[in-house]
Specification:
The chain has a two-stranded antiparallel ribbon with strand order 1-2. The chain folds into two domains: 4-103, no CATH class; 118-153. Helices cover 66% and strands 3% of the residues. It has seven helices and two strands. The protein has helices at residues 4-12, 28-39, 44-51, 55-71, 76-83, 87-102, 121-153; strands at residues 107-108, 118-119.
Length: 155
């Protein structure tokens, strides 16, 4: 079964050949095999062919593995040795992933709302805070009105 990404590419470029695993989720076994192949110093183009992925897909997975290792407090030397990435590549991968954590990706809600509506988690939290402030203000007004009614009834 083709990934949505692969289906999209095939529809745009029907005459072009694409690796069959393009856009597919990586399995634990496939990651393990990738690390073994990197350890054997197999050429990245051959690794990409064996995994039915692009060279960019292999590089992206190397970065993802490096970040996972970083989160497990693996030393920089060990990360570089296992992933075959250099210091700068590992540092860039870590920085990129950390930046994405701090700035959530905007999500297009075409199926739920208007086609152009996007949101980020931060914007949603801000909206909720504003709504809570409005609710607090409304509650205060209601309490004051209830007090006034109570006083009026008990005069």
């Amino acid at each position: 079964m083709d990934s949505p990404m692969l289906k999209n590419l095939k529809s745009k470029c029907p005459d072009k050949e694409f690796p069959s695993n393009l856009g597919m989720k990586w399995t634990f076994e496939e990651e393990k095999m990738l690390l073994e192949q990197l350890d054997e110093n197999i050429d990245i183009n051959i690794i990409a062919q064996r995994h039915n992925r692009t060279v960019g897909g292999i590089f992206g997975r190397q970065q993802a593995i490096a970040y996972k290792m970083y989160l497990k407090n693996v030393s920089m030397e060990e990360i570089m040795r296992k992933t075959k990435l250099n210091n700068e590549q590992v540092s860039n991968a870590i920085t990129e992933k950390e930046t994405k954590k701090k700035h959530p990706k905007e999500i297009n809600l075409t199926a739920i709302h208007e086609p152009t509506t996007t949101f980020s988690l931060e914007n949603e939290v801000i909206k909720m805070r504003n709504e809570i402030q409005e609710l607090k203000h409304t509650m205060k007004e209601l309490v004051e009105m209830m007090k006034a009614v109570y006083e009026f009834e008990h005069e």
